[in-house]
Amino acid sequence: MLQSALRHGLIGLLLITPALAATTAQQRGKAFARANCARCHAIDRVSESPLKSAPALRTLHRRYPIETLGEALAEGIYTGHADMPAFELNPDQIHDLLSYLKTLE
């Protein structure tokens, strides 16, 4: 009985540890992604993108080194399709979003 309770407690702890380990910047970056990107893009490690043609954020590092995206985010992200809004992030938002994107690699 005690062994079962300990096992369940350990499993629960393992499930919440990644959320506890996230830095404040990573948490703010995830919140930014949730508020601004999740309508079209998958913003986590497992979900499918709501808009099938929108790449999951977890795959960005396959196309671009995450560290190099800061300048593009500062200058503004503009795409050739009307569904994606233009984004110009301030330095703190860039830091936070990049911190979160690094967790998805």
Automatic annotation (TrEMBL):
Residues 1-21 form the signal peptide. The keyword Electron transport applies. The keyword Heme applies. Keywords: Electron transport, Heme, Iron, Metal-binding, Signal, Transport. It comes from the Bacteria. Coiled coil: none annotated. PROSITE patterns: CYTC. Residues 24-105 form the Cytochrome c domain. Pfam families: Cytochrom_C. InterPro entries: Cyt_c-like_dom, Cyt_c-like_dom_sf, Cytochrome_c550/c551-like. This is Cytochrome c.
